[in-house]
Records
---
Amino acid sequence: MNATEQIVAKARELLESGTVECVIGYERATDGVNARPLFVYQAEEAGKLIFDQTCAHNLAKYLLNRKGKATAIVAKPCDVRAVNLLINEHQVERDKVLIIGVVCPGMVETKWGRVSEKLRQACELCREHTPVVYDFLVGEPGDEEAAVEYPDVARMEALAIEERRAFWEKQFSRCIRCYACRQACPGCYCSECFAERLDPLWVGIRIAPSESWIWNTMRAFHLAGRCIGCNQCERVCPMNIPLSLLNRKLEKETLELFGYRAGVDAETPAPFATFRKDEKLEVGE
Amino acid sequence: MKRDNPLLPYLATLDEVVDLTPDVKLFRIELNDPEVRESFDYQPGQFVFVSAFGTGESPFGLTSVGYRKGPLEVAVRRVGTVTGSLHDLEPGAIVGVRGPFGNHFPLDEFKGKDLFIIGGGIGFAPLRPVITSILDHREDYGELTILNGARTPSDLVFAPEFDSWAAAPRTKLELTVDAGDESWTGRVALIPRVVAELGFSPENAIAVICGPPIMIHFTLIELKKLGFADSQIVTTLEGKMKCGLGKCARCNVGEKYICRDGPVFTMEQISQLIEQF
Amino acid sequence: MSDYISRADLLSWLEKVSQSRDLVAPVKIEDLTLFQKVERVEDIVFDPGNTDLSPKEFFFPKSEVLFYVDRSDGRVELVPAEVEQETVIFGIRPCDAKGIAVLDLPYLEEPADALYRQHREKTTLVGLSCVSACPECFCTSMGTTPDDASNVDIMLTEVEEGFIVQVVTEKGKALLPEGLLSSKEVSPPAAPSVASVPSEGIAEKMHQVFDSPYWDRLADRCLHCNVCSYVCPTCYCFDVRDLRSGGRVERVRSWESCQSPGFTKIAGGYDPRAAKGPRLRQRFAHKLLYFVEKFGVTHCVGCGRCVRSCPVNIDIREVIQDVQGLGVKSEA
């Protein structure tokens, strides 16, 4: 059975047995070639589920709308890291989620109505093809490869500060503050986002380059040590801003400073949520 | 009032601030421009946007009556950023006023009828001008019962007026609180319970209710039990508003905009709305 | 015989226009095609298809100062913002032009929005009709056509080496200098055929299926971002706040979307439309029912942008189809 067939069979089984109330997976989108999220509540509807290289959405975010309800989720390795993050941060209960993990071939670049053969840049760089945790596995786990690398971040780091600033100024000037990045991100779930706060006023409602700068950089910092690198922010941005690059820079720094990557398990305390008495910085350190 | 820039406020001065409760203040506001002051006319139920420049503006029901031609009065509860900024102002401060907006209580239809005015907390504010109008034209209306409720005795609004209301002809004032304090000797009961106990007759009567959604919800149940028809119950709806003109497309309940088609609605109109909150 | 202008003459005329007015036209920015103020007419793109954002931002900007609050010597003065510059928008498609006409309905209804009216008065629209249709377009089901000239001041239709020019309004005529146009024996190509959606009677149907569980199911995958509202040529919700800039207080109005969390949340925390289903339903009810009841036209011009841009493929064409079918057969 291929991935789609395995997922359909598992979904049917889980719904028929009443093990879960809902299976969150993917179905074909209205352009006929892309995928879109699908919520299956009845076993008879499980046949709509698909899995292929257009299934780039991170479905873990939807678990936040189903707290306390038994839910199965089709999850790629990056999506599973998101589930771990949410468990670690006490937003999701492990025993309410059934992870249908998928060995991931990488997702391809797509636009509306067009699917290419080329892998997304995030998937090119990805070294984790088997989810770190799952209840059922679809596909054969392969040999895991070398450690994670950040050539895209290194390229930016090689530029002078002024060039980097100019680059980001140009990118953020296109931001229309649709907050698609935030809404798609599994790490962004504050009941009142700092961008909505009026007192204190961090960003305000004005949609202009200087405010958009604050929005995007502060969001990146709120994800420092938490971003699991699913690339949703960049995928959903209607203005093609390379948001992942910023998050990956902070991911790289977190790895170098703390030896920590978010989402590899659900237990290790996150660096910025942890205080250890034996860590003391001297002035200038 | 016709203007070529309906989002531009009139400048006004905060004349007086009266503490009504620990978190509610009554603001008396005088429009600066004499021509505007002269032509600014409004009916009970209508509202204005009051600006605290530097923070923003919010809608407030007018609690004074237009025909007296005095300062505009609004009761402001400190609950957010704009109300917080307004509460920090001293008399003499310049504020902005836009309006009047919305429809109004159908006082003409109240004439000759017995009236049961029920208000909870700050929700009592839009009802005060109804009471004032009735008491200023006493002969035009039937029996008047005012039921004013709040969480605690110090949260009852318009306390300075209770004596004159109670003393008016053919008028009864009932007060109630959810929880009393050491000096409270009055009734301690939730508003819906008091409505049931008072047993108001729906015969030739209108009930006007304002207050938090949950209070309205349970009071309605009691009124229906007493035999009030939906067309005999009048209330106001509240919503987040930014323009008051039906242009920011935010305050709608179904096909109706609270700022233009409301805020005053009968229960009959509300039950016909396609969207139910 | 038609009025005609060659491509070269068109560009040199636009160049002249840009000297005394802001010339706004589609340009390419990093893979996107956007309406921007044009510095060089060579940057204008004439690709088939449409821009990624609609041109509504030139009438209803993403952010706009409504007025300034000047405080001096204890006096307060409100200084309303004014639109001073004349603008020409070149290359606007019939769907987007219809979108502006749709925005007129709430914004110019008395009392008219002052800034919007000024933008309208100071802007001339030079349209470009569509010689091909995108698969996602459905303008003909939403009250317009690929060659509809009724909402622009001048309409251009591409033919070999140049454009047929239709002068629609006095405002358009005033923009064209004497002798710019020539006469040519050429007829406009037939308008392309456009996919249709069953929009007939949609308002009535929306009314009937308002309480269907369909909306909760549709909203399951909605992210409640603002993309659909922001790319849409007809969406017009806004937020207003006072902000400080350079020591002065400005009252600013910005785009907002009915899909934002907190759109209907009042101070104190109560939110009547907090649930996902009713929130998403509001979008479609406004577009296909409330606006139709109030103004007689759908609040959608069939441009297809939301269809292309929604990250989770909430597709208004599919919604219309589903709504028409609801109640006819039993739904899950």
Note: Chain C has a mean pLDDT of 95.
---
Amino acid sequence: MDRVLEDFISTLRGSGVRISVSESLDAAHAVRLVGYEERRLLKDSLAAALAKSAPEKEIFSDCFDRFFSFDFFPENQQDMPRREAAEGMSSLSRMLLEGDQAGLITTMREAARTENLNAIQFYTQKSLYVMRILDRMGLNGLDRDIRELFLSGSPSSSATAARLEEARDYVYDNVRAYVEDQYRLFSGSEADKMLETYLRNTKLSNLEQRYYQQMQHIIQRLVKQLNDLHSRRKKPSRRGQLDFKQTLRDNIAYQGFLFDPKWKKIKIEKPNVVAICDISRSVSRLVRFLLLFLYGLNKEIIHIRSFIFCSNLTEVTHVFDTYPVNEAVARIQAGTDLPILLARTDYDRSFRDFKEQYMDAVTHKTTVLILGDARNNYNDPQTRILKMISERCKKLIWLNPETKPFWGTGDSEMKRYTPYCHVLKECNTLNHLERVVQSLLKK
Amino acid sequence: MSSKHDEKFSSIPAIQNGFREASYITSRQTATTVFLAYHLEKPILVEGPAGVGKTELAKTIATYLDLPLIRLQCYEGLDESKALYEWKYGKQLLYTQLLRDKLDHLVNKEDSFSQSIDKLHQYDDIFFSWHFLEPRPLLKALQQKDGTVLLIDEVDKSDDEFEAFLLEVLSDYQVSIPEIGTIHSVTKPFVVLTSNNTRELSEALKRRCLHLYIPFPDPALERDIIRIRVPDISKNLTLQLVTFIQEVRKLDIKKVPSISETIDWARVLLILHADNLHPDLVRETLHIFVKFEEDIRIVEEHLHHLTTQAVRASGG
């Protein structure tokens, strides 16, 4: 496969189009069939072989246009008279004086290739690459020519020198534009990957608003993975072994003849989750992302009832039924149309509310997920109610956004709640959240 | 696909012209993909909104190549026995009954049990041979001597398992029948898969196909299509109705009108002897391309405006 196609494919991969080896082979065959001559034809052919969904087609089209752009070194110098290049001048000077556009582009591309421009990753590397490419193209020779022409002193040679000076800037601008373009093409993946690792490990409370969009993308992707992984799980319950007891019982009606065999079923219960979230300011961001995560999951694979509390507690499951996830989360955080008091956090009142109104939501199949920092403003901690919940449910998971050393300090009641939690975790980054959700879905 | 069709697939304009003769107007992109699919011997996966002519593309390829079209309509629960082959159970049963005497004869009363089994073993494969095999679309497509166009329609409606099962057919053009063995295609069929994108298809399936996305056509292409499909309609009216439909597609409605619905509407207008769009006419015939109560209401709101716009566009 030729180098150009290889570079193009790695560019596409960098931009998020998944391309397998067999597909790149197809692309190579296609190129052999249609050739590089006709741009439109090449684009259509590669699109058919490489981009396999509507969004991928869009990315592809954009990448193609940028990758195969040839509008460098426009001939803006036509108004200037072309001058004869003197003997002994460097090839770069010669090309500039003669206005050899194709030559300039080829030299630039060659130089970029030898300098491995496609390995560029960070914007700080741009000027370095510009200098290296210019060096490769023979900038030193050009400088020497200019100097010598000035020194020789004759009017015609100094005019040529001035002309070359101008051309020097022209080369510089073009190379910079080229590097800029290639940077945008090649750097995408690495920079994105770095940002993603950073975002996944940053404390959600420190996260800046401008990253929210990206966070949502990451969450969506994670959720999709989880959905894909767990949506297949109803399959194994279809086959099974003979359930002898059941068969005997059911066939009593046929005088004990085993007429209607019953099969053992692997019954997989979908996780039943009750999420109780503190939405006071200290925790609210985490709540946002947890809810985005939970409600992103397919309704087929998880059953959720959600409650929020601050000074009191209320159920919000219906909000998710009426509005799309994003809007629902926003509504919940603002408390729009919800009977919730957003004053000081009160675990005493909230737990009592839960006990009185919603205790029936907790059964022996339920996993209870409490998200809160346990900072109770010195109210009664109501450990009795938590104990009750803990005894009723299958599993009680407490997620605390504070780091461990702070648990139990000041008005934090975490130490008192600890004995009743089956799982107690510090949870303040996206990675933590993902792990929790994953463990919920595991059998 | 044999080399006898090479001439028909010599260039992209040749394909476009050939398809035009079969009353199918293609964009360049579509023709290029068909061209590549033929030369690379790869299946085409066609995606796009409903009614843009995905199925029609396969039919046209069949007409163009003068090959039979074998169609497999996918649905939930479709399995191997309906797509690939089935044993003719009834025939097997009938034959065993009919041949009972023969069997008795074969197996002498004096024979011991093991001797009888040995004797039967000499004939064991008879009941699982080609005579008792009912080939379903996929197998039929592989058996055609002169090649065929195989259309696997709405593959997104089938289950994951069926999709996985298709992989063998698509990549190697062969299928395995346990009792008989692996069957290779006589001539590689031209395979077209269509999908309405109700679910994401697996990477593995996509990898084996060339991908073609057919969007709604731009106005010029749609006018061309109308002119070919409804030849008697006036140029002026075509322009108006295409402008109108294109604008309706921009509205926020549940189901946007497809090309086939545009064609239907053009036919209706022709029958009504209309030469110009006017609001009343549009209102009366609206239900031909708008299929939901809500949508009809939305379109009616904009109806006057859109009609005048369309009429103005034609200079009328």
Note: Strands of chain A lie at 272-278, 303-309, 313-315, 366-371, 395-400, 423-426.
---
Amino acid sequence: MSGRRVFALFRRVVEEIRRDRPSLALLFIAPILVTGLVTFILRESQTPIVHAVVVDRAGPAGAAVEGAIGDALQSQGSTVAQAPDESAARSEIEDGHASIAIVLPADFGSAGPRMITVITNGLDPAGEADQITSVQKALLAVTGELAGVSLPTISHTTIYGVPSKDPITTFAPAIVGFFAYFFVYLLTGVSFLRERTGGTLERLLATPVSRGEIVAGYTLGFGLFAMIQVALLMVWVLGTVHVPAMGPLPGFAVGLGVAMAGSPVVAFLVVVLLAVGAVSLGIFLSTFARTELQVIQFIPLVLVPQFLLSGVLFPVSTLPSVLKPLVPLMPLNYAVDGLRQVFIRGAGLDAGVLQVDVVVLAAIAALFAAIASLTIRREVA
Amino acid sequence: MMPAAVPDEEGGAKRPPAIRAVGLQKVFGSVRAVDGMDFELAPGRIYGLLGPNGSGKTTLIRLLTGMTRSTKGTAEVLGVTMPSRANLSRIGYMTQSDGIYPALTVAENAQFFGAMYGVTARDAWMDAVALVDLADRHASVAGTLSGGMRRRLSLACALIHRPEVLFLDEPTVGIDPLLRVQFWAHFRALVDTGTTIVVSSHVMDEADRCDELLFVRSGKVIARGTGRELRARAGTDDLEQAFLHYGGDGVTQ
């Protein structure tokens, strides 16, 4: 081993990276930015504002508790209303007037193990878990005040889906959306960069092809692979194939087997719309990259914030209020919401909430296609 | 091949120029890549843009093909002011880099660029491939070809739509002498069918294959004429010396 050669290699690597300003900036600034954002979200995340409806079936025995819970919750800026019965409370949640229902059972006052039922929507499991925690805290405060009353257990039901201990139910819709977006961006960004740096774009632009035609052709081409990718991903996520035990081999299952309330076709449509937007995003960002490494370096700037602010990991409802205005700007947000509507609620294309997501995703895809075609430089009128 | 192959007839009746530059200028920051060029090029001839690297040849070709917009002045090809997307179907442009898709085969590259020019007939792109002697390699993946073959494929891709005006940016760089002779034979054959060709080069020994030369230096056309004329005016029989003569004296046209 020649020390001189190793040193020459070392020096060349250092010099090369030192002269690649964008890489340098991203190498040092991106980790600070990303860790800062994550820390900020974790530290400054808000106590969720609970809009509770209380159904008191315990009569006078529950009234004291009900009042105390109300006081405890209201002190956090939450609202507490009453509902005559459970079905009224459920429709309050479905209409979006309430975020959680607290049902005090008829035998609430009696001795023995007592149980309070809380009902949530079920579409945003992580955010709803935070709400339940708030209610639990309020209960804890209440039972502290009412000496001798033991803490009741909480039973959680949801309007859509089943509150599950399987953590993937929460994440599956979001993750399907995110990774489709991620890989389509990466594939298009690198391919289009190759077109720019390989001299074929110059060649292409010397033909009568229009920029719109280029974007459309790229969208169709990468759209095809995105569709195959998403289809495979959906089969993998939703399906389970049980392989029986054979001889000494134990039986096992292939596929994640995530429960899906709605139509896989509708979910597929939502992801494909998102992916089409990612094609244009890749073309657009390749303008600012000179090397494939730089295409990858846009990930912490463009994809990580979307990941953090679209409810994939952290529920949107508890994001720091400074960051909340950014949420509607994230294309991924609409896909995650849409996919949760389909996966958990079973929404079809006739559901208004899903229509909004689909229309916004289509509009974003169209907007980015227009921007992308403008960034394919050719000075042709 | 003989010098000044085409006799100095201008085609009798005055034909409109194939290419026209009027006060053409392109400025990048503080660099005047093309610094006021005025010329008219009659159709059906081979014009050589001769000058050292960085003299503005590529920028001039990019202005004439509409790949970039002039800072001042106009560039016209076949009577149409560039940039014009519609006019590109009558123009062929072989870029300095090969500009072919290495993962596609020879035939697929030709077919693709044919489609971009709106030419879908198989004969058209197979003819172009045959013209550059790649017919027997039509199924080979472009990335596996030798440098010279890639250059030939690149030329073929600029010919499929039978352009009336053909711009060739350093077409013979990195090409062996034998292939160079073949290339010039192709160019001559194209001109005989009425095509106008503009070839840029910094290799002086290619100059005599052109019907007319434009010496380019520092973004300006410093001299123009047949190789013989330019040498005679400079009082030398070496084109390189002639170039220095015009460059040194700052003579324009």
Note: Residues 63 and 69 of chain B are 6 Å apart (CA to CA).
